[in-house]
Amino acid sequence: MTVRWGRCFNFRRCNDAKEMQTVPIPTGAPFVCPECSETLLDEYDIALKMDRFATREKSSFTLMATVSVALLVAGVAGFAAWWGRAHSVSTAE
After folding, report:
1. Count of domains forming the chain
2. Which of 6, 31, 78, 79 has the most crowded Cβ, counting Cβ within 10 A?
3. How far, in Å, CA of 89 to CA of 58, rounded?
4. 89 or 20, which is more confident
């Protein structure tokens, strides 16, 4: 007998949801929480969504880091150009 694992998200009425427990449901049985009768979310689907979220979180962090470094480099280059012009010795006679 195979079992599907699900998680309930009815936090208002279900202790299984409040305790973040995974609920085993036999294959062929309705995929609902035995405590509150709400539809369960499959553990496999939850894991896939979490992987996608982690990937999206990494890519947004990478983008923010890249933009921050680019702005820092541009600021340093602008300051160096301004400093060079302001403190250069005029060689033209």
Report:
1. 1
2. 6
3. 48
4. 20
Helix (H, G, I), strand (E, B) or coil at 25: strand
Report the alpha-carbon distance of residue 87 to residue 69 in Å, rounded. Answer: 27
- Asked whether residue 91 is domain-assigned, the answer is no
First to last CA, the chain: 96
Tell me which residue has tokens 């602008």. 78
Q: Is 92 inside a domain boundary?
A: no
Name the residue with tokens 């036999």. Answer: 26
Is 74 a residue whose pLDDT tops 90?
yes
The model's pTM: 0.47
Dihedral sign from CA coordinates of 62, 63, 66, 67: negative
Picking from 57, 48, 6, the residue whose alpha carbon sits closest to that of residue 27 is 6
For residue range 12-58, list pLDDT tens digits in order.
Answer: 989 988 898 888 999 889 999 999 999 888 877 766 666 555 555 66
The helix/strand/coil state of 85 is: helix
